[in-house]
Amino acid sequence: MWKFITLILLPFCFSFLPAGNPGKTGTTNTIITGADQTAAYLPYLKGKRVGMLANTTSIIGNRSIADSLHAFGVDIKVIFGPEHGFRGNASNGAKVGDEIDPATGIPVISLYGQKRKPSAKDMAGIDIMIFDVQDVGCRFYTYINKLADIMEACAENNKELLILDRPNPNGYVDGPVLDMKLSSGIGKFPIPITHGMTIGEFAQMINGEGWLPGKQKCKIKVITVKHYAHHMDYTLPVAPSPNLNTQQSILLYPSLCLFEGTIISQGRGTHMPFTVLGNPDLKGKYTFSFTPVSIPGMSETPLHQDKVCYGLDLRQYDMTALRSSGKVNIQWMIEMYKAYPFKEKFFDMSQSKQMGNIDKLAGTTLFKQQIIAGKSEAEIRKSWEPQLSAYKTMRKKYLLYPE
């Protein structure tokens, strides 16, 4: 029966795949995600009670993986939801409650609220856990933290973790390595801003570097992406979160999220988040403007709500040059600090409703001091060494795909 299901499902899935994303090598082979390779894992799930960490990016073709696997008879006992919820309709930072999924009738347990990881009771009812979430390759994007939580629960309860891997749209490595004295919910690991790994590779790093409590090891099986290398461009078929709603915003995110530690808006409260920068006090310095408003499901109380912000419009910025450089853009931070008239307010989080202070976002206390002191980009980048180069060397041990 399962072989028959697999044969039926495969052409159904692949008929909805997006056009191929050829890399610099000139290949025209279509990138095939782990989830879309149903023949590689459907038989493996036969007879097993399945738990799943999934969200709106967890798809087979153009359909939710939970809906697809449920329809084809996989015994899904429970779904765990990360930030933004299983169906992806919760705002940034909003607590998400438990529920019964109306489409499948499967219990959904939120892991973004009071509960950080599945309990022993949750794990007792399953034989294997699936992790299928699209990451964007940044230290402060919380899905890698949730990966570690799931790995921890699996290790504690002797359960295997099946990772359905997906490409990293920001596959380069750059930024200061996190000073672990600044460890927080927006940075748990000693890695740079862009870590240059897929979820499957990062799971191997967590195991290999002993980052789980007590240096536990999680048994993992990775369904790797076909026809993929880290240098390839990859356009996400689904927005990974409400405020990363375009490919441009996804590619700008590593550079613009740093502004969440400042008084500068990144466009939350508009339909173009993470593609613009601005502040009401920059009137006269810039001609471009936007006005953040409350948008349910995206940003209910954005910074500078109902105030006209003036600044930079990066919606048409050439991302090819930025991505090929392999660098986070810190020139925008330098420029905006110089332009802002009230320097003492720029990094003052008592003025801000945003996610965290600049030290935790940057991963170092030096970055803020360097911006205030007027240091050049070259001087700032020099301070990231030798830790950044050491990370790049360490990373190579865990790569599943060519550079």
From TrEMBL:
Protein name, UniProt field: Uncharacterized conserved protein YbbC, DUF1343 family
Keyword Signal included in the entry's annotation: yes
Residue ranges occupied by any Peptidoglycan beta-N-acetylmuramidase NamZ N-terminal domain in the UniProt entry: 50-247
Gene3D superfamilies registered for this protein in UniProt: 3.90.1150.140, Uncharacterised protein PF07075, DUF1343
Keywords: Signal
A Pfam entry, by short name: NamZ_N
PANTHER family with a match to the protein in the record: HYPOTHETICAL 460 KDA PROTEIN IN FEUA-SIGW INTERGENIC REGION [PRECURSOR], PEPTIDOGLYCAN BETA-N-ACETYLMURAMIDASE NAMZ
Signal peptide start-end: 1-19
Origin: domain of life: Bacteria
GO molecular function, one term: peptidoglycan beta-N-acetylmuramidase activity
Organism, scientific name: Chitinophaga rupis
Protein's UniProt keywords contain Signal: yes
Annotated Peptidoglycan beta-N-acetylmuramidase NamZ C-terminal domain residues: 251-401
InterPro entries according to UniProt: NamZ, NamZ_C, NamZ_N
